[in-house]
Amino acid sequence: MALDDAGLDLLFRNARTPVAWNDRPVGSDTLRQLYDLVRLGPTSGNCCPARFVFLTTEGARERLRPALSAGNVQRMMTAPVTVIVAHDPLFFDRMDTLNPQAHVRQWFAADVGLAEETAQRNGTLQGGYMIMAARALGLSALPLSGFDAAMVEDAFLADQGWQANFLLCLGYCDGPPDTARAPRLGFDDACVIV
């Protein structure tokens, strides 16, 4: 069964990157519901390497501020939640739980390059699922890439050994943007059918 037009509008056609947030909080129950949707998205071999750190307090955002490029400070500081979308480079240590096939853990443990590539690719994929799940729950999502990853990792991820991928601000949009959607490439410019 396919989504109806209302569902497609919510997830894609009418969804926009927010320019301002309202004061409505995003509770921990919503964050748990969000992750419960994200974790169901497919990853290669069910490797599930993404890890998420939810920054919900002003103190946590202040710790993140020095790592941000100047253009991202205001948008992040006013967002109710900022998520550090990261991945665990040792994700394969959980493969015995996540994938019942024999020796899957060893594939990655024996090949650092394969493990790094798999963690980065699939962690990014799971971050994309988070954007779509947030929209499905009525949240707006603002992905950010202008930050110093080493600073973020030192401040928030060092104890776990996780690696930062991108930041994702979440909240409730304070009205639609006052500009038109930026252009997108058409099918013939971006796709080939073989």
UniProtKB/TrEMBL annotation:
InterPro entries: Nitroreductase (IPR029479), Nitroreductase-like (IPR000415), Nitroreductase_HadB/RutE (IPR050461)
Enzyme class at the top of the EC tree: oxidoreductase
Chain ranges of the Nitroreductase domain: 22-172
Assigned EC number: 1.1.1.298
MF terms (GO), sorted A to Z: 3-hydroxypropionate dehydrogenase (NADP+) activity
Keywords: Oxidoreductase
NCBIfam families in the cross-refs: PRK05365.1
Protein name as annotated: Malonic semialdehyde reductase
Organism: Komagataeibacter melomenusus
